[in-house]
Amino acid sequence: MEDCDATPVPWVHWLVFNIPPDTTTVSAGSIPAGGTEGIANGGTHGYEGPCPNTSTVPTTIISSYSPWMPHWIYLQARIKHM
Do residues 35 and 17 touch, judged by C-beta distance below 8 A? Predict the structure, then answer.
């Protein structure tokens, strides 16, 4: 989970890898079964909440990479918070 409005750009709020390909949901406050948390920009494991600049509308990017599919399917969602 990346924040394009934070410094340094992008600021990684949450990093999880090795998520099994049959995972269809991720419950709030949990790590997907079989997944491993990486270290976020603040030097910690786990989710680091945003500290948005109030003069802009924050943008969060959620990305997914899949090595189990041909050509590494890459999905990305840009979310504008109002």
Answer: yes
Between the alpha carbon of residue 63 and those of residues 51, 53, 54, 55, 66, the distances in Å are 20, 22, 24, 25, 10
Measuring CA to CA, how many Å separate 60 from each of 34, 36, 68, 69, 81? 24, 21, 25, 25, 8
With a threshold of 0.85, does the pTM exceed it? no
- Residues 61 and 4: beta-carbon distance below 8 Å: yes
pLDDT one-digit tens code per residue, 17-62: 888 888 888 888 888 888 899 888 888 888 887 776 666 666 777 7
Report the relative pairing of strands 59-66 and 36-37 from DSSP bridges: unpaired
